[in-house]
Amino acid sequence: MTRPATTAQGRGSVVDRRVTGFGGTVRLLDPAEAAPGVPPPSPGPDRDLVALVEQAGLVGRGGGGFPTARKMAAVAGRRRPVLVANGAEGEPLSHKDEVLLGTAPHLVLAGIALAARAVGARQAELCLHRGSPALPAVRAALASHHGAGVRIGLRQTPRRYVASEESALIRWLSGGPAMPTSRPPLPAERGVRGAPTLVLNVETLADVALVARRGAAWYRSVGDPSEPGTLLVTVAGAVPAPGVVEVPTGVALGEVLGLAGATPESVGAVLAGGFGGGWLSGESAWRTPLTYAGLRSAGAALGPGLLAVLPPWACGVTQTSSIARYLAGQSAGQCGPCVFGLPGIAGALEAVGRGDRHAPAAAAAAGRWSASVAGRGACRHPDGTARMVTSALRVFAGDFARHARGIPCAASRSAPVLGVPGPSEEDWR
Amino acid sequence: MSAVRLEVDRIACRGHGLCAGLLPEAVSLDEWGYPVLSAADLPAELDRTARRTVSACPTLALRLAPSRNPAPSRNPAPSRSPAPSRRGGPL
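The joint structure predicted for all components is written out below.
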C-alpha cells in the first residue's frame, strides 16, 4: 500500500514527493525505526555484528554493490581505524541519502555507532555535500545522540560529481582536494590521514542498524535472495510524482516507476544508476529486476538507486550529449584518457546532435572512444560515462540513425528533459 | 618466478609513450598518446624488457603486478619437467 505522498523540497528545480511504503515493507523510512537510540554493546565481542551482516547478505547501497561484511572485516582489528559515513550523494538527480538523513537521521547515527564499534573505530566522519537539505535534521539528531563511545564529526564535502567517490572522500578528509587517488593503497590499509578506513554509504549504515536490531533472518525476509532487503530509489524525470521510494530489492523496475505514477506508455527510456549508469528502453526497463546483477546484465547499473525517466517524444541524442558534456566537465582532470576522452566523446555526440555531414563518423567515434576510456582511470568516472554513452547508442539507435541522415528530431531543439547542473564553480576543497 | 602483468598509475602517467616504444608487444597508445595495456600476463621471454620499460617510465607510472589468473601459468606442469635442472628455472 502506498501511503499518502509527503513533499520534501529537493535541491535544484526538482520538487520531490517522498512516497513511503510499498507492499508493507517500509523499513528504513519506518517512523518506528527512526527513534533515537543505539543498542547497548552485545555480550560477545562487537565484532559479531560483522558475522551478522554477512548472514544478512547486505551489499553496499552507494553504487558499488560490494558485500558490506567483507568491507568491515577488512578493517576490523587494524590499528585505530576510521569510519566514513558517505552521504555526499554526488549524482545530481539522486535524493535518496538526503531523504534518509532528513527522515531517519537517528537510524543512520545508530548504524554509524554500531559499525564503528564492530570494527574498533572510535572516530567516524559523516559526510554530506555542502548545503544539503538534510543538514538541519542531521545537526539536530547529532545534538541529542549518545555517542556510544564513537565520536561522529559532521563534514560538508564539495559539490562535485566525483567528490563522493571513496578515494576522493578520503583524500579530502585528509586535507587534500576531493579528487580520486590511485590504488594501491586500499582504504582499508591506508585511508583518512593514513589510518585504516572503512567507507560505507549512509543507507548501508542504516541497514546495519536494522540488522543489529532485528537480526539477519528478519533482514533477509524481503527482497531478492542474493541481494536482500529494501532499497531507497529516487525516481526522477518525466513521471507524475518524482521522489524517493522504499522498495524490496528484486521487484521489477516497472513497479517502482508505477509508484511514481508512470505507465508503460509514458516511459520512452530509463537512465538507471545515474549519469554514469546506463540507458534501458522503456519496454525492457519495465521488466528488469531492481538488483545490481539484474541491471548490470541489462547493460545499465543500479548505482545509488536512481531511475530517471525520458518520455517517448524526447531526443535521446540531445539528452545523452548534454549528460556527456556535464560528465566531461566533472572530471578531476588527473588521468589522460578521462581528460581527453570524455570531452572527445561529448563533442562527437554534439556533432551527431547537429546532424551535419560529420554525424555518422562522429557517432562511430563516440562508441570507439567510449570503449577505449573504460577501465582506464584511477576511478570509475570514465567507465560510467562510457557505459552511459554505449547504452545510449544501442537504446536510441533510431534517434542516432535519423540524426546521422541529417534529420534531427523535433525535440532536439528544446532543452533536455533531464537537466544537468551548469558548469561547476565549486572548488575541490 | 610467478606470472606478472603490466599496470599503470593513471594519475602519474603523463602520456610520454616510451612504454609503447620499448614494449610494443604489451603496450599500445590511444589517440591521445596514453598507454593501452595488454590485460594478459606477460610472456616469460619479455621479462627483462618489461623490467627495463618499467624503470624507463619518466614518471614512474608503470609497474609489474601479480597475475590476475589464480593458477601460476608460467611454471610448466611437473609431469613435463621430470628432472629439476641443475641450472635452475627456465629463466
